[in-house]
Model the fold of this input.
Amino acid sequence: MGRTIPSFRIASAMEEKEWKSFRKALDKSDRKVFDDMFAISHLYNSASSYPAKYVRRHPVFMSIIFHHYKQLSKLYEHMEEKNNLQDTS
Done:
């Protein structure tokens, strides 16, 4: 029989546990940043359950990258709007 693949929510928690030693090696101030960054991947658990190839790290990293890309795009748009307003003044 085939191997049972856990839900991505469970797999995501398993992945987070595997990064525990890395997290412990960070400065205390960086641990909060790391936790916040890793929490971003949980926002996209539903979408992360759909990849054809099952490698837990790929959807986690893609979720974080995607979220940061969205934030950067919004900042860029905000800067463009601000520049356009200054140009018309």
